[in-house]
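Morning!

This is the sequence you dropped in the shared folder:
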Amino acid sequence: MEIENSRFNRNLRIVLSFLFIATLAGFAYIEFAANPERPVWWMILINLLILAIPFGLIYGSIYVLVVSFREHSRAGKIDPKMGKIIHWAPRAAGILIIFFISLFSLDVFDMPGTFLQKLGGLLMHNIPSIAMLVILLIAWKRPVVGFVAFLVAAVLFAGFFVRSVFSANLVIFVLPILLIAALFYGDWKWNKIPLPVPEPLV
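The structure's back. Tokens below.
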């Protein structure tokens, strides 16, 4: 059984790694083909590094969820090593997606206006990031809160920033947030850490 699980996990890592590289390559091709001026290679590289954050979250989350669900459905529990991974994965992923969303607020410094106006614009653009940071802090020790709150955040992002099912925002914003909610669900429902047995009173 352990050999079968190791083989399955290895094959899953290979498939998801290939999909990660293929997705980045696809987005790079779309950007290159859509720009008639042929963007310089370092701009494409920077964009790919930025896009690697949500795509890494997507495929990494899928791996953790599939392996954890498989272990839980077969044995009724997940092993301690995977338990630690699924405990920390939604929290680390939450920090990364907040950082990724915050990067888009830096555009305000390219706009006209005084420094204070740009600072105000930076604050306004970071309202979603600040809200998600507060949610993450509240959910840090309460995975059920993280599950519900990130699920609601994904719906709100879809309502405000997605105009069609073919929108790139659906992939790079909404899907990672949904998967973070799923990771919190896995930590809440599957990661049952036994409570310490109290010592008998003498």
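Headline: The chain has a mean pLDDT of 85.

More detail when I'm at my desk.
O.
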